[in-house]
Amino acid sequence: MSFIKNYIEHQTLNRRNLLLLSAWGLCGAAASSSLIGRQAAAATSPDPKICWSYRDRTNPFWNSIVAGGEAFVRSLGRQSGDLINLINGGSSEKSLSDIQSLLSRYGSGVALAVDPNDMPNCRPVVEAVSHAGAYVSTIWNKTDDLHPWDFGDNYVSHMTWSDVGPSEQTARVLFDAMGGKGGVVHLGGIASNNPAIERQQGFKNALKAYPNIQLLAIQAADWDTQKANQVMSGFLTRYGDAIKGVHCASDTMAYGVIEALRAEGIENMPVVSYDGNPQAIEMIAKGKLLATVFTNAYWAGGITASLAYYAATGAFKPSAEPREHREFYGPTAVITTKDAQEFKTKYIDTNPEYNWKDFWSLAKGPIRYKS
């Protein structure tokens, strides 16, 4: 379990260092204002710049996302370093500013893969890309009224994951491990994030089937290991022995929770999480974590970049595709102690090889919205 302690100790320093790698966050922000209000003609480019805009590569999930993006770039005969990294550190303002600066420099010659960080930020990101005549594929966060087909070909696609069902499954695994009774706490992500909302809903859905499980508290820890450690320490001070299980909306928060439990001498409390990071899978295989949900971040990172790139080159026309190819769910799988070792061998010890031109091979159908 020493990696958790090291992860917490080095997370802040590593994040600061990685932010320095954000090539366009350091300069050119002033020039980005020229993009606003200018609609560029749609155009394709034989050699677009490929970029991934994301939160923080010190997070294992985002590390897998970018590793998939790099694998796609290598499939083109390029070097991994040809992928431009825009690291926003969880700031929607920085996310948009970096993207505007990138567009200011390269104009329509950009193929962008991005998590906009929160739902409201997706629209200005997409509008900036569309005005520049570039191409963008998004994941996770957008508002329900924003759709790729409203932007012609420039907004290529949006991928998210149907988190309610898998989160409910992990909650049921947790409640069963608790013997169907006792107090439980939930640590959530950023309140305005789609996955945080859906994972909390799945947790609440499971509670309805377990009348003897008592919900003690729900609190956001913003996907952050250190904050989750602090939140869990506060829960232990407030509720003490009444806590019999912990439901986390991400693996990285679960690491902070487990360290907080260990600090109090608690070694065997059942904890479940989400994302299927390599460390989490290894912990499940060793019985240190009860369950997680694998979202195949590696494939998602590669295929999101691939969609933007091949649209930018004119290899396919997004507006000619059916809507289920413009907005779709990514794959999920609940991993428990029963299958963790086999899963680790197949997906963690080595990455499967994917055909990056088979865009929707692992897609799980069109996104469905609540009426």
TrEMBL record:
User: Where does this chain mainly localize?
Assistant: other
Q: Which residues form the Periplasmic binding protein domain?
A: 53-314
Keyword Signal belongs to the record = yes
Record keywords: Signal
Task: Provide the protein's localization.
Answer: Cell envelope
What GO molecular function annotation could you give as one example from this UniProt entry? carbohydrate binding
Listed InterPro entries: Peripla_BP_I, SBP_2_dom, TAT_signal
- The domain of life for this entry's organism is Bacteria
GO cellular-component term (any): cell envelope
Gene3D superfamilies named in the record: 3.40.50.2300
User: Which region is the signal sequence?
Assistant: none
Q: Tell me which family the UniProt entry assigns to this protein.
A: Belongs to the bacterial solute-binding protein 2 family.
**Protein's name in the database:** ABC transporter substrate-binding protein
